[in-house]
Design a protein that fits this description.
This protein has eight helices and 29 strands. It is an alpha/beta fold. It has three domains: 191 residues, FAD/NAD(P)-binding domain, CATH 3.50.50.60; 133 residues, FAD/NAD(P)-binding domain (3-Layer(bba) Sandwich), CATH 3.50.50.60; 71 residues. The strands form eight sheets. Strands 1, 2, 5, 6, 7, 8 and 21 form a seven-stranded mixed β-sheet that branches. The longest helix is centred in the last third of the chain and has 20 residues. The protein is globular and about 65 Å long. The N and C termini lie far apart (64 Å).
Length: 424
């Protein structure tokens, strides 16, 4: 088993890993290595053939493969090294990566800095507790997307979709365009988990009904799905007797949430955020282990790939700074702890290190329900510093606020910053 040393190793060659690699190279680090388990760069975007990508990054509308290709082409042009078909099986606290592929067998990489960019995966049926047999015809929405867009295989002709995440909404439209009949989209929560534009463009435009506060309570069929029964749920998400509806179908697609791919992260002993299932990071996107950074959907699930690329660029630049400073960590004061106030589920970052603040600190977060006509406030040690009016906020859409550098300079002794709703 051979071992090699690199300055920066990036685990994942999707949009986050590519953007991080380019930013690290631009920041002055030449020795960058990307490890990707798939057979080509680009990650999940390679199967997302719909448009809507790149409006923030490139000021034009691109498909997923087009967006990925712009970054992958730059990585290749810059001569940044990457290994495809390479599975990382372990990451240790001393930034040693164990990986394997066909060409090299098992090998190790000792890196001065590591960027985690592994993305996320879909929540499987086993995690949903749906009763019934296990017939053919049950797919995650992402698996169905790969079958249709890459393999050229239609999963079925009559479809029910459970969950209104963005992938499920997009696949409702995709299956319809390919000739299938999408009978209903059922959503457990009283609100959709997807972007508003996807509800309009993928469901409303095609007359596909969305039933909120509904879930699948039974699957009929042993060899192949023959139909599903959905029912309305109460405030505790328990099915309400007498509300059952049966839909004859041959396919059930599951779009019930995304889970960051953090087995390597937890294996390395990195502190985790139980709400996001991602690492706890500071404002430089550094985890609890110095020199290991996290970005993209492995950190927290994003709405738009443009935001993934932006965040990953910051991770790449900060990892490069860590390497160029020879891993020296300035001994600073205790970090400012980020807290969640009323209506807010989590914030990224989870803490702010003053010595790493060079400009405004961007804080991204999600709310816990649908709210209208609210004020999002920033509180320094309980004192409201600033608020922003929002007409509507929803869990399916990520929000952001900027903590201004001059605000941090004005309050040198602040210990906690809370993001939450401000009362009138």
């Amino acid at each position: 088993m051979y071992c090699r040393n690199v300055d920066i190793a990036i685990i994942g060659g999707g949009p986050a890993g590519l953007a991080a690699a380019l930013a690290a190279r631009e920041a002055g680090v030449q020795d960058v290595l990307i490890l990707e388990r798939d057979t080509k760069l680009g990650g999940i975007l390679n199967q997302c053939i719909h448009n809507g990508f790149g409006l923030h990054t490139f000021k034009e509308e691109l498909t997923g493969p087009e967006y990925a290709a712009r970054f992958a082409d730059r990585v290749i042009a810059e001569g940044i090294e990457y290994k495809l078909g390479t599975m990382v099986v372990d990451l240790s606290k001393d930034k040693t990566i164990t990986a394997m592929n066909r060409e090299d067998g098992m090998f190790t990489i000792k890196a001065k800095a590591v960027i985690l960019a592994m993305g996320c995966r879909e929540r499987p049926r086993g995690a949903l507790g749906i009763p019934g047999f296990r017939p053919a015809g049950i797919f995650s929405a992402g698996t169905a997307q790969r079958f249709v867009n890459i393999e050229g295989i239609m999963p079925g002709k009559e479809v029910v979709i459970l969950g209104s995440g963005d992938i499920g909404l997009i696949m409702a439209r995709r299956m319809t365009l390919e000739g299938a009949k999408v009978k209903v989209v059922a959503e457990l929560m009283p609100y959709s988990g997807g972007l508003k534009r996807n509800i309009v463009q993928c469901l409303n435009d095609y007359g596909i009904p969305l039933k909120l506060s509904h879930t699948v309570v039974d699957i009929k069929g042993k060899e192949r799905v023959e139909g599903v029964t959905i029912a309305q749920v109460d405030a505790k998400n328990k099915p309400i007797p007498g509300t059952e509806e049966f839909y004859a179908c041959d396919t059930l697609l599951l779009s019930c949430g995304l889970i960051p791919e953090n087995e390597l992260t937890t294996g390395a002993g990195i502190e985790m955020n139980p709400v996001t299932s991602g690492a706890v990071v500071d404002n430089s996107l550094e985890t609890s282990i110095p020199g290991i950074y996290a970005c993209g959907n492995v950190l927290h699930v994003h709405d738009l790939v443009d935001y993934v690329s932006e965040e990953a660029g910051n991770a790449g630049r900060n990892a490069a700074k860590f390497v160029l400073d020879a891993g020296r960590e300035e001994a600073g004061s205790d970090p400012i702890i980020m807290k969640t106030g009323k209506g807010v589920r989590y914030t990224v970052p989870s803490k702010i290190c003053r010595e790493k603040v060079e400009k405004d600190v961007l804080v991204r977060f999600r709310v816990d329900n649908v709210y209208k006509d609210v004020k999002l406030g920033i509180f320094f040690d309980g004192e409201l510093v600033r608020s922003v009016k929002k007409r509507t906020v929803a869990p399916g859409e990520m929000e952001e606020l900027r903590i201004r550098k001059e605000e941090l300079d004005k309050f040198p002794d602040v210990r906690e910053i809370t993001v939450g709703f401000a009362e009138d």
